[in-house]
Write a structure and sequence with these properties.
274 residues, alpha+beta, eight-stranded mixed beta sheet, 29% helix
Length: 274
């Protein structure tokens, strides 16, 4: 495991203190990577106070995909949902999970385990900061997530590299991210519940940089609405379809899901209640 980036050190302290229940205050989202954002801005965002916020949120998670039949299960109350979300992530064996990451060659730094969420329900039980995944893909900014999501990177990166080889003829060396841990509510029809980002159980992937050629941005290259695709769009569409169908991820949301995901893939391994 590599040493913690010096400017990420503040995150460790902020998360530890924040999950003990500081006075909440509003905070703004970071600038997207590749659009004026920076690791310093990302850290400032992550180390802000713990009040859930809807302002500027980039995703709108919902368990109902387009065209799906209405759910017949009765959704838990917001308070019960938050408790179940926390228990789902906290139930993972942090020691064993981090050992699994190390054995796969993931470059990460461990954060202190958090035994309980803060006063509004947020926190990362078994936090890690991932700078490089098992196939060598670098993440910028690094992924501040729970280990339970980090261990899914092996299957995510396998799919990414296989489709890169098939459509691009060159491996992916870097993924630009828009957000990981963020204490806030969902947006949309379930806005009374916390986002999976509130537990470090979600990440937003914005672009893929190949070893040769320019970065492939979801906002620019997905070509939503077209019927014929070039190699860049074919790569993104194949990755999206396989992440949804071949991994243990709970949700994978992208441009085809709704407009809020037009510029990124949201992935999470959150609690499935229905």
């Amino acid at each position: 495991m590599n040493e913690l980036h010096p400017r990420l050190a503040a995150v460790v302290v902020a998360l530890t203190v924040g999950c003990a229940g500081p006075s909440p205050r509003a905070f703004a989202p970071p600038e997207p990577a590749g659009q004026g954002g920076s690791i310093e801005r990302h850290i400032e965002y992550l180390s802000s106070a713990s009040q859930p916020s809807d302002a500027g949120a980039s995703d709108a998670e919902s368990p109902d995909p387009p065209g799906a039949a209405p759910a017949i299960a009765i959704r838990p109350s917001a308070a019960e949902m938050t408790a179940r979300q926390w228990e789902h992530v906290a139930s993972v064996d942090g020691v064993a999970c981090r050992a699994e990451l190390a054995s796969e060659g993931v470059r990460f730094t461990s954060l202190a385990d958090v035994a309980a969420p803060n006063r509004v329900g947020c926190g990362v039980p078994h936090g890690v900061v991932v700078t490089r995944g098992p196939t060598g893909i670098a993440y910028a900014p690094p992924l501040l997530v729970d280990c339970s999501l980090a261990r899914e990177l092996a299957s995510v990166e396998r799919i990414v590299q296989e489709e890169a080889d098939r459509h691009l003829g060159t491996p992916i060396v870097r993924i630009a991210t828009l957000g990981t841990f963020s204490c806030r509510h969902r947006r949309g029809r379930w806005e009374d519940t916390l986002s999976e980002h509130s537990f470090g159980d979600a990440a937003d992937l914005a672009s893929f940089e190949p070893k040769k050629g320019r970065a492939i941005a979801i906002a620019r290259d997905y070509e939503l609405g077209k019927t014929a695709f070039g190699p860049r769009a074919s790569f993104l569409r194949a990755v999206y379809a396989r992440l949804r169908g071949e991994t243990k991820l709970t949700f994978v949301l992208g441009p085809e899901f709704n407009p809020e995901h037009r510029d990124h893939f949201h992935i999470d391994s959150g609690y499935r209640w229905w």
